[in-house]
Write a structure and sequence with these properties.
Largest sheet: 16 strands, antiparallel, barrel
Structural class: mainly beta
Strand content: 35-45%
Length: 468
Protein backbone atom coordinates (compact mmCIF):
# COMPACT_ATOMS: atom_id res chain seq x y z
CA UNK A 1 0.00 0.00 0.00
CA UNK A 2 2.82 2.37 0.86
CA UNK A 3 4.57 1.63 -2.43
CA UNK A 4 1.35 2.23 -4.38
CA UNK A 5 0.72 5.51 -2.59
CA UNK A 6 4.29 6.62 -3.27
CA UNK A 7 3.94 5.91 -6.98
CA UNK A 8 0.65 7.85 -7.08
CA UNK A 9 2.27 10.82 -5.35
CA UNK A 10 5.20 10.86 -7.80
CA UNK A 11 2.90 10.72 -10.83
CA UNK A 12 0.70 13.49 -9.43
CA UNK A 13 3.72 15.66 -8.68
CA UNK A 14 5.05 15.16 -12.19
CA UNK A 15 1.70 16.12 -13.62
CA UNK A 16 1.60 19.29 -11.57
CA UNK A 17 5.12 20.27 -12.65
CA UNK A 18 4.43 19.51 -16.31
CA UNK A 19 1.17 21.36 -16.18
CA UNK A 20 2.89 24.35 -14.61
CA UNK A 21 5.59 24.45 -17.24
CA UNK A 22 3.06 24.13 -20.04
CA UNK A 23 0.95 26.85 -18.53
CA UNK A 24 3.97 29.08 -18.15
CA UNK A 25 4.96 28.55 -21.80
CA UNK A 26 1.42 29.21 -22.90
CA UNK A 27 1.34 32.37 -20.90
CA UNK A 28 4.52 33.64 -22.54
CA UNK A 29 3.12 33.04 -26.04
CA UNK A 30 5.64 33.91 -28.80
CA UNK A 31 7.65 36.40 -26.75
CA UNK A 32 10.23 33.80 -25.70
CA UNK A 33 11.15 33.14 -29.36
CA UNK A 34 10.91 36.64 -30.79
CA UNK A 35 14.66 36.97 -31.32
CA UNK A 36 14.88 33.55 -32.97
CA UNK A 37 11.94 34.23 -35.26
CA UNK A 38 13.43 37.54 -36.29
CA UNK A 39 16.74 35.84 -37.13
CA UNK A 40 14.97 33.15 -39.19
CA UNK A 41 13.09 35.85 -41.09
CA UNK A 42 16.35 37.64 -41.89
CA UNK A 43 17.90 34.41 -43.20
CA UNK A 44 14.86 33.65 -45.36
CA UNK A 45 15.00 37.13 -46.85
CA UNK A 46 18.62 36.66 -47.97
CA UNK A 47 18.42 33.04 -49.17
CA UNK A 48 17.58 31.82 -52.67
CA UNK A 49 14.50 29.64 -52.49
CA UNK A 50 12.70 27.25 -54.81
CA UNK A 51 9.19 27.90 -55.98
CA UNK A 52 8.02 24.60 -54.51
CA UNK A 53 9.21 21.61 -52.48
CA UNK A 54 8.40 19.01 -55.11
CA UNK A 55 11.23 19.79 -57.52
CA UNK A 56 14.81 19.44 -56.30
CA UNK A 57 16.93 22.39 -57.45
CA UNK A 58 20.70 22.26 -58.01
CA UNK A 59 22.71 25.38 -58.90
CA UNK A 60 26.17 24.88 -60.42
CA UNK A 61 28.59 26.27 -62.98
CA UNK A 62 32.16 27.30 -63.66
CA UNK A 63 34.35 30.33 -64.30
CA UNK A 64 37.08 29.90 -66.93
CA UNK A 65 39.34 32.91 -67.57
CA UNK A 66 42.84 32.96 -69.02
CA UNK A 67 45.72 34.99 -70.46
CA UNK A 68 46.45 34.40 -74.14
CA UNK A 69 49.83 35.30 -75.64
CA UNK A 70 49.91 35.31 -79.45
CA UNK A 71 52.32 35.87 -82.33
CA UNK A 72 51.09 36.09 -85.93
CA UNK A 73 54.59 36.30 -87.44
CA UNK A 74 54.67 40.11 -87.43
CA UNK A 75 52.81 41.27 -84.33
CA UNK A 76 52.84 39.90 -80.78
CA UNK A 77 50.48 40.71 -77.92
CA UNK A 78 48.67 39.34 -74.88
CA UNK A 79 44.95 39.42 -74.04
CA UNK A 80 42.92 38.44 -70.99
CA UNK A 81 40.19 36.17 -72.39
CA UNK A 82 37.29 33.91 -71.54
CA UNK A 83 38.58 30.54 -72.71
CA UNK A 84 36.15 29.27 -75.34
CA UNK A 85 37.30 25.71 -74.71
CA UNK A 86 34.83 25.34 -71.84
CA UNK A 87 33.72 28.92 -71.21
CA UNK A 88 32.20 30.50 -68.11
CA UNK A 89 28.58 29.46 -67.38
CA UNK A 90 26.02 28.82 -64.69
CA UNK A 91 23.12 26.39 -64.61
CA UNK A 92 19.93 25.44 -62.80
CA UNK A 93 18.90 21.78 -62.81
CA UNK A 94 15.51 20.62 -61.59
CA UNK A 95 14.61 17.03 -60.74
CA UNK A 96 11.29 15.63 -59.53
CA UNK A 97 10.38 12.02 -58.76
CA UNK A 98 6.97 10.99 -60.10
CA UNK A 99 7.07 7.35 -58.90
CA UNK A 100 9.54 4.48 -58.71
CA UNK A 101 10.06 4.40 -62.51
CA UNK A 102 9.27 7.90 -63.75
CA UNK A 103 10.88 11.29 -63.13
CA UNK A 104 10.90 14.72 -64.76
CA UNK A 105 13.04 17.81 -64.68
CA UNK A 106 14.62 20.69 -66.54
CA UNK A 107 17.96 22.24 -67.47
CA UNK A 108 18.50 25.99 -67.76
CA UNK A 109 22.11 26.97 -68.52
CA UNK A 110 23.36 30.48 -69.27
CA UNK A 111 26.71 31.16 -70.93
CA UNK A 112 28.79 34.25 -70.21
CA UNK A 113 30.46 35.94 -73.19
CA UNK A 114 32.85 38.85 -72.89
CA UNK A 115 36.39 38.39 -74.14
CA UNK A 116 35.74 35.20 -76.12
CA UNK A 117 39.12 33.67 -77.06
CA UNK A 118 37.56 32.37 -80.28
CA UNK A 119 36.83 35.81 -81.75
CA UNK A 120 39.78 37.97 -80.66
CA UNK A 121 41.57 39.77 -83.49
CA UNK A 122 44.74 41.78 -83.99
CA UNK A 123 42.51 44.86 -83.90
CA UNK A 124 40.81 44.13 -80.59
CA UNK A 125 40.56 47.62 -79.08
CA UNK A 126 40.28 46.64 -75.41
CA UNK A 127 40.99 43.66 -73.23
CA UNK A 128 37.40 42.57 -73.74
CA UNK A 129 36.55 44.08 -77.07
CA UNK A 130 32.84 43.27 -77.00
CA UNK A 131 29.77 44.10 -74.95
CA UNK A 132 28.96 42.11 -71.86
CA UNK A 133 26.38 39.50 -72.82
CA UNK A 134 24.63 36.37 -71.65
CA UNK A 135 23.33 33.69 -73.99
CA UNK A 136 21.12 30.65 -73.53
CA UNK A 137 23.04 27.40 -73.83
CA UNK A 138 20.25 25.13 -72.61
CA UNK A 139 16.57 25.73 -71.88
CA UNK A 140 14.77 22.38 -71.93
CA UNK A 141 12.62 20.00 -69.90
CA UNK A 142 12.81 16.22 -69.80
CA UNK A 143 10.79 13.19 -68.74
CA UNK A 144 12.54 9.93 -67.90
CA UNK A 145 11.68 6.28 -67.41
CA UNK A 146 14.52 4.22 -65.95
CA UNK A 147 13.69 1.30 -68.28
CA UNK A 148 12.72 3.21 -71.44
CA UNK A 149 15.03 6.25 -71.50
CA UNK A 150 14.71 10.02 -71.47
CA UNK A 151 13.01 12.50 -73.82
CA UNK A 152 14.16 16.14 -74.00
CA UNK A 153 12.24 19.10 -75.48
CA UNK A 154 13.75 22.56 -75.93
CA UNK A 155 17.07 24.28 -76.62
CA UNK A 156 19.73 21.72 -75.74
CA UNK A 157 22.43 19.44 -77.16
CA UNK A 158 21.69 17.45 -80.29
CA UNK A 159 22.50 13.74 -80.34
CA UNK A 160 25.97 14.32 -81.83
CA UNK A 161 26.99 17.18 -79.52
CA UNK A 162 30.37 16.17 -78.03
CA UNK A 163 30.75 13.16 -80.35
CA UNK A 164 34.25 14.26 -81.50
CA UNK A 165 35.36 15.23 -77.96
CA UNK A 166 35.27 11.90 -76.08
CA UNK A 167 38.48 11.98 -74.02
CA UNK A 168 39.15 10.19 -70.72
CA UNK A 169 41.88 12.69 -69.73
CA UNK A 170 41.43 16.19 -68.34
CA UNK A 171 43.25 17.89 -71.23
CA UNK A 172 41.62 21.32 -71.03
CA UNK A 173 43.66 23.11 -73.71
CA UNK A 174 43.58 20.20 -76.17
CA UNK A 175 40.90 19.02 -78.59
CA UNK A 176 39.82 18.81 -82.20
CA UNK A 177 38.29 22.33 -82.11
CA UNK A 178 41.12 24.35 -83.65
CA UNK A 179 39.23 27.65 -83.81
CA UNK A 180 38.59 28.08 -80.07
CA UNK A 181 42.00 29.77 -79.69
CA UNK A 182 42.70 31.83 -82.80
CA UNK A 183 39.57 31.54 -84.93
CA UNK A 184 38.88 35.28 -85.06
CA UNK A 185 42.45 36.38 -85.85
CA UNK A 186 43.19 37.51 -89.39
CA UNK A 187 45.70 35.71 -91.57
CA UNK A 188 48.98 37.61 -91.86
CA UNK A 189 50.02 37.70 -95.51
CA UNK A 190 53.50 36.62 -96.46
CA UNK A 191 54.27 40.27 -97.28
CA UNK A 192 53.44 41.22 -93.66
CA UNK A 193 50.07 42.88 -94.29
CA UNK A 194 46.84 41.71 -92.72
CA UNK A 195 44.33 39.91 -94.92
CA UNK A 196 40.56 40.03 -94.48
CA UNK A 197 40.43 36.26 -94.03
CA UNK A 198 40.19 34.72 -90.56
CA UNK A 199 41.69 31.48 -89.32
CA UNK A 200 38.16 30.29 -88.64
CA UNK A 201 37.43 30.76 -92.36
CA UNK A 202 40.15 28.32 -93.43
CA UNK A 203 39.34 25.73 -90.76
CA UNK A 204 36.54 23.22 -91.50
CA UNK A 205 33.49 24.23 -89.53
CA UNK A 206 29.85 23.33 -90.00
CA UNK A 207 28.79 25.98 -87.49
CA UNK A 208 31.03 28.86 -86.43
CA UNK A 209 32.40 27.30 -83.26
CA UNK A 210 31.86 23.59 -84.06
CA UNK A 211 34.11 21.39 -86.13
CA UNK A 212 32.85 19.05 -88.85
CA UNK A 213 31.22 15.91 -87.51
CA UNK A 214 30.34 17.65 -84.25
CA UNK A 215 26.80 18.42 -83.16
CA UNK A 216 25.74 21.56 -81.36
CA UNK A 217 22.84 23.02 -79.36
CA UNK A 218 19.52 23.65 -81.12
CA UNK A 219 15.78 23.62 -80.51
CA UNK A 220 15.18 19.88 -80.64
CA UNK A 221 13.20 16.89 -79.49
CA UNK A 222 15.79 14.34 -78.34
CA UNK A 223 15.68 10.75 -77.10
CA UNK A 224 18.45 9.16 -75.01
CA UNK A 225 18.29 5.44 -74.22
CA UNK A 226 19.26 3.79 -70.94
CA UNK A 227 22.79 2.38 -70.84
CA UNK A 228 23.00 -1.33 -71.62
CA UNK A 229 26.31 -3.21 -71.39
CA UNK A 230 28.08 0.14 -71.64
CA UNK A 231 26.21 1.25 -74.79
CA UNK A 232 23.67 4.04 -75.22
CA UNK A 233 21.94 5.48 -78.28
CA UNK A 234 20.43 8.89 -78.89
CA UNK A 235 18.56 10.67 -81.67
CA UNK A 236 17.28 14.23 -82.15
CA UNK A 237 15.24 16.29 -84.61
CA UNK A 238 14.62 20.02 -84.76
CA UNK A 239 15.49 23.51 -86.03
CA UNK A 240 12.91 23.17 -88.83
CA UNK A 241 14.65 20.42 -90.73
CA UNK A 242 17.70 18.62 -89.37
CA UNK A 243 18.26 15.42 -87.44
CA UNK A 244 21.08 13.32 -86.01
CA UNK A 245 21.74 10.02 -84.24
CA UNK A 246 24.66 8.74 -82.17
CA UNK A 247 25.99 5.63 -80.44
CA UNK A 248 28.26 5.85 -77.38
CA UNK A 249 30.16 3.30 -75.28
CA UNK A 250 32.09 3.39 -72.01
CA UNK A 251 33.64 0.48 -70.15
CA UNK A 252 36.62 -0.88 -68.24
CA UNK A 253 38.38 -4.21 -68.61
CA UNK A 254 41.85 -5.77 -68.17
CA UNK A 255 43.20 -2.65 -66.51
CA UNK A 256 42.08 -0.28 -69.30
CA UNK A 257 39.29 2.30 -69.46
CA UNK A 258 37.66 2.78 -72.86
CA UNK A 259 35.21 5.38 -74.16
CA UNK A 260 34.10 5.95 -77.75
CA UNK A 261 31.25 7.19 -79.89
CA UNK A 262 30.11 7.98 -83.39
CA UNK A 263 27.24 9.82 -85.00
CA UNK A 264 25.58 10.98 -88.23
CA UNK A 265 23.89 14.34 -88.84
CA UNK A 266 21.67 15.50 -91.72
CA UNK A 267 21.13 19.27 -92.25
CA UNK A 268 18.48 20.58 -94.65
CA UNK A 269 17.95 24.04 -93.20
CA UNK A 270 20.50 26.82 -92.87
CA UNK A 271 19.49 27.96 -89.39
CA UNK A 272 22.37 30.44 -89.28
CA UNK A 273 21.22 32.26 -92.39
CA UNK A 274 20.02 35.36 -90.58
CA UNK A 275 23.28 36.08 -88.80
CA UNK A 276 23.55 33.30 -86.22
CA UNK A 277 25.99 30.41 -86.06
CA UNK A 278 24.88 28.23 -88.95
CA UNK A 279 26.29 25.26 -90.82
CA UNK A 280 28.89 26.01 -93.44
CA UNK A 281 26.71 24.52 -96.15
CA UNK A 282 25.92 25.84 -99.62
CA UNK A 283 22.46 27.41 -99.67
CA UNK A 284 20.92 27.51 -103.15
CA UNK A 285 18.23 29.88 -101.84
CA UNK A 286 20.53 32.11 -99.78
CA UNK A 287 19.36 35.26 -101.56
CA UNK A 288 15.65 34.54 -101.03
CA UNK A 289 14.38 35.82 -97.69
CA UNK A 290 12.95 33.18 -95.38
CA UNK A 291 13.91 30.17 -97.47
CA UNK A 292 16.77 27.66 -97.51
CA UNK A 293 17.98 25.01 -99.92
CA UNK A 294 20.64 23.15 -97.96
CA UNK A 295 21.70 19.51 -98.20
CA UNK A 296 24.60 18.68 -95.87
CA UNK A 297 25.47 15.57 -93.92
CA UNK A 298 28.31 14.90 -91.49
CA UNK A 299 29.89 11.98 -89.68
CA UNK A 300 31.91 12.28 -86.47
CA UNK A 301 33.72 9.72 -84.32
CA UNK A 302 36.12 9.86 -81.39
CA UNK A 303 37.48 7.63 -78.67
CA UNK A 304 39.96 7.31 -75.86
CA UNK A 305 41.84 4.52 -74.09
CA UNK A 306 43.60 4.91 -70.73
CA UNK A 307 45.77 2.44 -68.82
CA UNK A 308 44.41 2.68 -65.29
CA UNK A 309 47.63 1.88 -63.42
CA UNK A 310 50.01 4.19 -65.30
CA UNK A 311 47.63 6.88 -66.53
CA UNK A 312 49.00 6.63 -70.07
CA UNK A 313 46.30 7.44 -72.60
CA UNK A 314 45.53 8.18 -76.22
CA UNK A 315 42.62 10.08 -77.77
CA UNK A 316 41.64 10.41 -81.40
CA UNK A 317 38.86 12.06 -83.39
CA UNK A 318 37.73 12.32 -87.00
CA UNK A 319 34.95 14.25 -88.73
CA UNK A 320 33.73 14.82 -92.28
CA UNK A 321 31.16 17.15 -93.83
CA UNK A 322 29.68 16.31 -97.24
CA UNK A 323 27.91 19.24 -98.94
CA UNK A 324 25.62 18.03 -101.74
CA UNK A 325 24.95 21.55 -103.10
CA UNK A 326 28.42 23.08 -103.14
CA UNK A 327 29.29 22.08 -106.71
CA UNK A 328 25.92 23.34 -107.93
CA UNK A 329 26.54 26.70 -106.29
CA UNK A 330 30.26 27.15 -106.96
CA UNK A 331 30.96 25.05 -110.05
CA UNK A 332 32.07 21.55 -110.89
CA UNK A 333 35.62 22.21 -109.68
CA UNK A 334 34.56 23.09 -106.15
CA UNK A 335 35.65 20.84 -103.31
CA UNK A 336 32.48 19.72 -101.54
CA UNK A 337 33.97 17.76 -98.64
CA UNK A 338 35.61 19.03 -95.44
CA UNK A 339 37.61 16.71 -93.19
CA UNK A 340 39.31 16.97 -89.81
CA UNK A 341 41.35 14.48 -87.85
CA UNK A 342 43.09 14.87 -84.51
CA UNK A 343 45.23 12.75 -82.17
CA UNK A 344 46.38 13.39 -78.60
CA UNK A 345 48.52 11.28 -76.27
CA UNK A 346 49.82 11.78 -72.76
CA UNK A 347 49.82 10.71 -69.12
CA UNK A 348 47.56 11.55 -66.17
CA UNK A 349 48.64 10.84 -62.57
CA UNK A 350 48.26 12.28 -59.08
CA UNK A 351 51.95 12.90 -58.44
CA UNK A 352 51.71 15.73 -55.90
CA UNK A 353 48.65 14.86 -53.82
CA UNK A 354 46.76 17.97 -54.93
CA UNK A 355 44.92 16.21 -57.72
CA UNK A 356 45.71 14.64 -61.07
CA UNK A 357 48.33 16.15 -63.37
CA UNK A 358 47.73 15.75 -67.11
CA UNK A 359 50.57 16.13 -69.64
CA UNK A 360 49.94 15.70 -73.37
CA UNK A 361 51.00 16.39 -76.93
CA UNK A 362 48.63 16.86 -79.88
CA UNK A 363 48.46 17.07 -83.66
CA UNK A 364 45.56 17.89 -85.98
CA UNK A 365 44.93 18.23 -89.71
CA UNK A 366 42.01 20.24 -91.16
CA UNK A 367 40.99 20.29 -94.84
CA UNK A 368 38.41 22.95 -95.71
CA UNK A 369 36.38 22.70 -98.91
CA UNK A 370 35.71 25.52 -101.34
CA UNK A 371 34.89 28.59 -99.30
CA UNK A 372 31.42 30.06 -98.97
CA UNK A 373 30.23 33.58 -98.32
CA UNK A 374 27.88 34.68 -95.59
CA UNK A 375 25.01 32.30 -94.85
CA UNK A 376 26.13 29.73 -97.41
CA UNK A 377 26.07 32.08 -100.43
CA UNK A 378 28.49 32.20 -103.34
CA UNK A 379 31.08 34.81 -102.22
CA UNK A 380 32.24 37.66 -104.38
CA UNK A 381 35.78 36.65 -105.34
CA UNK A 382 38.10 39.58 -105.84
CA UNK A 383 40.40 39.27 -108.84
CA UNK A 384 43.44 39.31 -106.55
CA UNK A 385 41.98 37.11 -103.84
CA UNK A 386 44.99 34.77 -103.87
CA UNK A 387 47.99 36.06 -105.73
CA UNK A 388 51.07 34.15 -106.79
CA UNK A 389 52.91 35.64 -103.81
CA UNK A 390 50.31 34.46 -101.36
CA UNK A 391 48.70 37.83 -100.73
CA UNK A 392 45.04 37.49 -99.72
CA UNK A 393 44.50 40.98 -98.37
CA UNK A 394 41.67 41.75 -100.77
CA UNK A 395 39.75 38.53 -100.25
CA UNK A 396 36.14 39.65 -99.78
CA UNK A 397 34.80 36.18 -99.05
CA UNK A 398 36.08 32.64 -98.63
CA UNK A 399 36.78 32.65 -102.37
CA UNK A 400 39.31 29.81 -102.56
CA UNK A 401 39.22 26.27 -103.88
CA UNK A 402 40.34 24.67 -100.62
CA UNK A 403 42.56 25.17 -97.60
CA UNK A 404 44.60 22.83 -95.41
CA UNK A 405 45.55 23.79 -91.86
CA UNK A 406 47.80 21.84 -89.50
CA UNK A 407 48.06 22.31 -85.74
CA UNK A 408 50.40 20.85 -83.16
CA UNK A 409 50.90 21.65 -79.51
CA UNK A 410 51.53 20.58 -75.93
CA UNK A 411 49.54 21.13 -72.74
CA UNK A 412 49.43 20.66 -68.98
CA UNK A 413 46.52 20.60 -66.51
CA UNK A 414 46.93 20.49 -62.72
CA UNK A 415 43.77 19.68 -60.77
CA UNK A 416 43.37 21.00 -57.23
CA UNK A 417 40.67 18.77 -55.78
CA UNK A 418 40.25 20.69 -52.52
CA UNK A 419 39.17 23.81 -54.47
CA UNK A 420 37.35 22.10 -57.39
CA UNK A 421 39.87 23.92 -59.57
CA UNK A 422 42.00 23.18 -62.64
CA UNK A 423 45.11 25.19 -63.51
CA UNK A 424 46.22 24.86 -67.15
CA UNK A 425 48.70 26.02 -69.74
CA UNK A 426 48.93 25.10 -73.40
CA UNK A 427 50.86 26.00 -76.54
CA UNK A 428 49.62 25.62 -80.13
CA UNK A 429 51.27 26.24 -83.51
CA UNK A 430 49.07 26.88 -86.57
CA UNK A 431 49.93 27.02 -90.27
CA UNK A 432 47.79 26.88 -93.41
CA UNK A 433 48.04 26.52 -97.18
CA UNK A 434 45.31 27.86 -99.48
CA UNK A 435 44.75 26.61 -103.00
CA UNK A 436 44.28 29.14 -105.76
CA UNK A 437 41.17 31.24 -106.21
CA UNK A 438 38.26 29.87 -108.20
CA UNK A 439 38.22 33.04 -110.31
CA UNK A 440 41.57 33.35 -112.09
CA UNK A 441 42.71 36.55 -113.76
CA UNK A 442 45.67 38.89 -113.86
CA UNK A 443 48.35 37.83 -111.39
CA UNK A 444 46.20 35.33 -109.51
CA UNK A 445 47.58 31.92 -108.78
CA UNK A 446 46.30 29.30 -111.18
CA UNK A 447 43.32 27.37 -109.91
CA UNK A 448 44.52 24.44 -107.84
CA UNK A 449 47.98 25.93 -107.26
CA UNK A 450 49.04 25.74 -103.63
CA UNK A 451 50.38 28.99 -102.27
CA UNK A 452 51.67 29.87 -98.81
CA UNK A 453 48.82 32.21 -98.02
CA UNK A 454 49.86 33.36 -94.58
CA UNK A 455 52.56 33.48 -92.00
CA UNK A 456 52.34 31.00 -89.14
CA UNK A 457 50.52 31.67 -85.88
CA UNK A 458 51.59 30.72 -82.35
CA UNK A 459 49.63 31.04 -79.12
CA UNK A 460 50.01 30.23 -75.42
CA UNK A 461 46.96 30.13 -73.18
CA UNK A 462 47.26 29.88 -69.39
CA UNK A 463 44.48 30.17 -66.84
CA UNK A 464 42.15 28.29 -64.53
CA UNK A 465 38.67 26.80 -64.25
CA UNK A 466 36.95 26.86 -60.86
CA UNK A 467 33.66 25.02 -60.51
CA UNK A 468 30.81 25.58 -58.12
Amino acid sequence: LFKSASRFALVAAAGIVAGGVAAQAADLGGNCCADLEERVAELEATTARKGNRKVKLTVSGQVNEAIMFWDDGTEQNAYVVSNNMGRTRFRFVGDAKINADWSAGYLLEIGVRYANSGNRTQGTATAGGESNSLDIRHSAWWIDNKNLGRVWVGETSTATDGITEINLANAITGGIDASAWQGGFLLRNTNGTLSTQTWNGVTPSQAGAWGVGEGDRNNVVKYVSPTFAGFSVSAAWGEDDQWDAALRYAGEFSGFRVAAGGGYRQINDNFGKNGGDGPRCADLAATTAGTSAVDCNSIGVSGSVMHTATGLYVHGAWGQLDDQNRKALLGAGAKDKETSWYVQAGIEQNWFGLGKTTLFGEYGNYEAGSGLGASGANPAVNTSSVSSTGVVSTLSGNGFQSAETTVWGIGLTQSIDAAAMDLYIGYKHFETDIQGARTVSGTNAAAGTTVKASQEFDAVVMGAIIKF
